[in-house]
Amino acid sequence: MDTPEKRLETFPNPAPERDYTIRITLPEFTCLCPRTGQPDFATLELEYVPDRLCVELKALKLYIWSFRNRGVFHEAVTNEIASALGTALSPRFLRLTARFNVRGGIYTTVVAERRQPGWEPAPPVSLP
């Protein structure tokens, strides 16, 4: 049986010569409210432009699972995950959006980004 892990595994980018975007949706993120101990649920949306490494999906799932029983504020956990991914991958660009379910009539969305110094995205292409 798989268990939660704080280790992110990577593999070599199969196309390091090209900028391309990887989008991953993690709809079952859970952690605990640090004040009440009640569960918080969120959908995490990860977007990144890899440089030399990509994240291995099963390891990412187990890493995300490791927050299940931990009390942490939404802002802190989003930035912690973004930092861990940034450290493991050193991507050209990374954006993590955490959309937390309603709690007390309030929805919270936290967005954390990082980019390599000097990296600029290609201009958008508008197709007819």
Name the descriptors.
alpha+beta, 128 residues, 6 strands, GTP Cyclohydrolase I, domain 2, single chain, globular
Structure description:
The protein has a single domain (18-115), classed as 2-Layer Sandwich (GTP Cyclohydrolase I, domain 2), CATH 3.30.1130.10. The protein is globular, with a radius of gyration of 16 Å. It has helices at 57-65, 74-89; strands spanning 10-12, 22-32, 39-49, 53-55, 93-103, 106-115. The chain is α+β, with helices and mostly antiparallel strands and 128 residues long.
Sum this structure up briefly.
The chain is an alpha+beta fold and 128 residues long. 20% of the residues lie in helices and 38% in strands.
Topology-level CATH name: GTP Cyclohydrolase I, domain 2
From the alpha-carbon coordinates, what is the Rg to the nearest angstrom? 16 Å
What's the total number of strands? Answer: 6
Structural class: alpha+beta
Number of domains: 1
Helix count, DSSP H or I runs of 4 or more residues: 2
CATH architect. name: 2-Layer Sandwich
Strand content: 35-45%
Q: Quote the average pLDDT.
A: 95
* Range of helix content: 10-25%
Sketch the major β-sheet. Answer: 4 strands, antiparallel
Specify the CATH homologous superfamily.
Answer: GTP cyclohydrolase I, C-terminal domain/NADPH-dependent 7-cyano-7-deazaguanine reductase, N-terminal domain
The CATH class is identified as Alpha Beta
Distance between the termini: 50 Å
- Could you name the ranges where pLDDT drops below 50 across 5 or more consecutive residues? none
The helix/strand order is EEEEHHEE
The strand line-up of the biggest sheet is 2-3-5-6
Choose one word for the global shape: globular
